[in-house]
Amino acid sequence: MIRIEDVIEKVEKNRPDPDIDLIRRAYLFSALHHRGQKRASGEPYLVHPLEVADILAEMRLDEMSVSTGLLHDVVEDTLIDLDTIREYFGDEITRLVDGLTKIAHISNLSKEKQQAENVRKMVLAMITDVRVVLIKLADRLHNMRTMQFLKPEKRARISQETLDIYAPIAHRLGMGKVRSELEDLSFQNLYPEEYKKLSKEVEARRPELEVMLEKITDLIKEKLRENDVPFIEVEGRVKRLFSLWRKLKKRKLTIEEVYDLIAARIITPNDKKICYVALSVVHDIWTPVPERFKDWIGNPRDNLYQSLHTSVISPTGQSFEVQIRTEEMHQIAEEGVAAHWKYKESRLGKREEDESLDELRKTVEKLLLPLVETTETTEDSEDFIESLKLDLYPKDVYAFTPMGKIIQLPRGSTPIDFAYAIHSEVGDNCTGAKIKGRIVPLRTELQNGDVVEILTVPNSKPSRDWLNYVVTSKARNSIRHWISEQQRVESIEIGRKLLEKEAEKFRLSPKKLLNSDDEMKRIANEYGLGRPEDLLASIGYGKTLPRNVLAKFLGAEKFAELDPEKKKETRLESGMKAVKKFIGLGEDAIIIKGVDNLLTTRARCCNPLRGEEIIGYISLGKGIVVHNKRCKNVQQLMVNKERIVDVEWAKGDGQEIQSVRLLATTENRTGMLAGITNAIAEIKTGIRDARAEVSKNDRGLIEVTIEVFDKKHLDKVITSVEQVPGVIAVERVNS
Ligand code: MN
Q1: Longest CA span, the chain
Q2: How far is the CA of 163 from the centre of ligand 1 (A)?
Q3: Cβ within 8 Å of residue 499, ≥6 positions away
Q4: What string of DSSP letters covers 573-612?
């Protein structure tokens, strides 16, 4: 069994001045709390954290990581909580342990295979420190190495997860060695039969392959020496079982058809020019296959892998691959991100600390491309590893449905985006949301790991407001679509009403026109519109004037004859109007349901209030703009009489709030603002804003924005403000 002294020895060898005491304390703590626990193999549980710490020491990670390796299962598997860890080991280790515990929870959710990519991204997104990933990989590696004691189903499940999530992460981080081992172990445990069959096939051929490899590597060495090309090593290898198996399956090949079943690798001193010289030597010995040449030195892979790959054919027709890379490239290919610790230690002195920090950060960024967008810049950090804190997916956020399905959204998304991401109907019917069981406002920004429950009510509708706080185009488009549908429905309704009214002015039966589909269609076509509804919608939007539609319906002659503009109202007609008004029937006005509806807006100039007398003006493309009848602009608008339309407030519940500005002129004395706001508050009226200033003629000017339901309410407020001692005058102001 491995001992803590072995681990400590490695740390001491690889790092200057390590905090060995910390590692010893972590060891004792772990031993104490895991005591009595056993692994599936029957060994003491402590073996596992010890081995994980050893793998981390082997990767040359710092003592924080090694200590976290020792402690990584304590919170998950014993009664110890994070607070206790913090008490004994401080914030940094606590953060690392917490990160690992979180991953343990996420990976339990990865049952659906198609979500593997999401889980992978989420694991990375939830981690803010690269060391957490490395420790997790070490943990997984040791578990995979000791899997033989588990039941086959459990082995298969863990192996699948390793293939789906952890091997790709190792690949992204350029950690070729860890990735290969994880893949081969997963293959062995997930498909034991196929593994056995394939390894038998390879073993049967191994003696022959080894002889071939020896000949190849000897020849390469000889020719390199002959040409004075320096090299550190030339090695031969048989393709790994997992990648061989994947290739056979994908390409439907037999083992004999695989050209890179064996490969040679030349490792040169750290000068990439030597690689190209070595390449020419190799191409001198054997015939290259041009289309298989790859220059990963000139164009490094995203994970910073660098190497020259060339496939050649021997005189006997055997093809194989030769890889050429420098020692440093080799180390990066094998160890990825972990290799960079090494370079930092060996290459750079203390003085260059700051630069080295920058350099390292840049390297890690590149290594994690294309995943990394930005990193936090921590300039004063003493511990250079601190600077490795990364937000690996800064643009995305991952949230869950209550059923555990992962929804990936851009940062800044809200529950509405989430709802539309589930289904457009869920979005349309969304009325509220719960995050982690608590009701939250719909504009709440989602955080990684949020469990979001969308509350819906059948047939409820989206709100135009939502457009202000959605970020996904799916949500935005769905809401817009709904609004334009709604607008169309309303504009058709309003258009119909306007046309009816206009027809009445001409003393035509509105039905005669509206029910004549052919006529309506003909007129619609004249406007370049398809259907009668389109014509009505166009009238409703204010694009087409009802008067002109009538002109087309009647023909010029008849139109002129019936035109009410040129005719005096008969006595009977004016009498009827008066009677109608008297008995409260009013005219057939357009009903304004509340303010700022889809097709009706309040004019800014007079900000008409519920309860006030109003008049509508059909504004081009904006629908009906509602003015106060006494608004000074109405006079001007009257010039376009045909655009004026009667409107009145719907008899609603009157609970719609509207803000109104009041300006009070007062004596210049203290307490005026308080006196006025108190008076307003006393009659239970909301105040949105209040400000006071002194005018040139030494008057107090107090402007208050209040929230009122209607004209009556406003009058009440004005009366009570007028009664505040010191108030000289109160008036309503509009922008
Ligand atoms: Mn573990």
Answers
A1: 122
A2: 18
A3: 510, 513, 514, 536, 539, 546, 549, 550
A4: HHHHHHHHHHTT----PEEE-SSS-SSEEE-TTT---TTS
The tokens describing 410, both together, are: 């851009």
Q: Average the pLDDT over 269-294 and give the result.
A: 90
Q: How far is the CA of 166 from the centre of ligand 1 (A)?
A: 14
Cα 480 from chain centre: 20
What one-character-per-residue DSSP string does 666-703 give?
EES-TTHHHHHHHHHHHTT-EEEEEEEEE-TTSEEEEE
Compute CA distances 36 → 3, 43, 46, 56, 220, whole Å.
18, 10, 9, 25, 56
Query: Edge-to-edge strand order for the sheet containing 438-440?
Result: 438-440, 430-435, 452-456
d(CA 684, CA 347): 73
Contact 349, 290 (CB under 8 A): no
Where helices occur in 258-313 by DSSP H, the ranges are 272-285
Supply the DSSP symbol for 86. H
Q: How far is the CA of 376 from the centre of ligand 1 (A)?
A: 29
Q: 101 pLDDT band (50/70/90 cuts)?
A: confident
List of residues 6+ apart from 513 with CB closer than 8 A? 499, 503, 519, 520, 550, 553
Give the distance, in angstroms, between the CA of residue 733 and the centroid of all CA atoms in the same chain. 44
Give 200-225 as a DSSP string.
HHHHHHHHHHHHHHHHHHHHHHHHHH
* Residues 45, 77: Cα–Cα separation, whole Å: 10
**Strands of 699-708's sheet, edge to edge?**
686-694, 699-708, 658-667, 727-733
Q: What is the mean pLDDT of the segment spanning 6-12?
A: 92
Q: Residue 4 — pLDDT band, cuts 50, 70, 90? A: very high
CA of 383 to the centre of ligand 1 (A): 26
**DSSP-assigned beta bridge partners for residue 267:** 233, 325
Name the packing angle between helices 4-14 and 63-71 (round to 10°): 160
Nearest of 189, 182, 191 to residue 154 by alpha carbon: 189
Residue 612 and residue 629: Cα distance in Å, rounded? 8
Distance from Cα 142 to the centre of ligand 1, integer Å: 8
List pLDDT tens digits, range 128-166. Answer: 677 888 899 999 999 999 999 999 999 998 998 898 888
Residue 332 pLDDT exceeds 50: yes
Backbone phi, then psi, for 449, in 5-degree steps?
85, 0
The residue annotated as part of the active site, out of 77, 327, 386, 504, is 77
Catalytic residue among 43, 76, 353, 722: 76
Residue carrying the six token digits 């690269």: 130
What whole-number distance in Å separates Cα of residue 284 and Cα of residue 278? Answer: 10
Q: Tell me the C-alpha distance between 727 and 662, whole Å.
A: 13
Q: Which residue in 233, 206, 239, 201 sits closest to 220, CA to CA?
A: 233
- State in Å: Cα 553 to ligand 1 middle: 84
Q: Are strands 319-326 and 308-313 parallel, antiparallel or unpaired?
A: antiparallel
Give, to the nearest 10 degrees, the angle between helix 176-190 and helix 327-335. 40
In b/e form, how buried is each residue of 157-191, taking b as 16+ CB within 10 angstroms?
A: bbbbbbbbbbbbbbbbbbbbebbbbbbbbbbbbbb
CA of 126 to the centre of ligand 1 (A): 19
CA of 139 to the centre of ligand 1 (A): 5
pTM flag (> 0.85): no
Distance 283 CA to ligand 1 centre (A): 48
Distance from Cα 555 to the centre of ligand 1, integer Å: 88
Q: What is the 3-state secondary structure (H, E, C) of 361-403?
A: HHHHHHHCCCCCCCECCCCCCCCHHHHHEECCCCCEEEEECCC
Rounded-to-5 percentages of helix, strand, coil across the chain: 55, 15, 30
Q: Is the peptide bond preceding residue 410 cis, with omega within 30 degrees of 0?
A: no
76 in active site: yes
Q: Could you read off the pLDDT of 206-259 as tens digits, one per residue?
A: 999 999 999 999 999 999 999 999 999 999 999 899 989 988 888 888 887 787
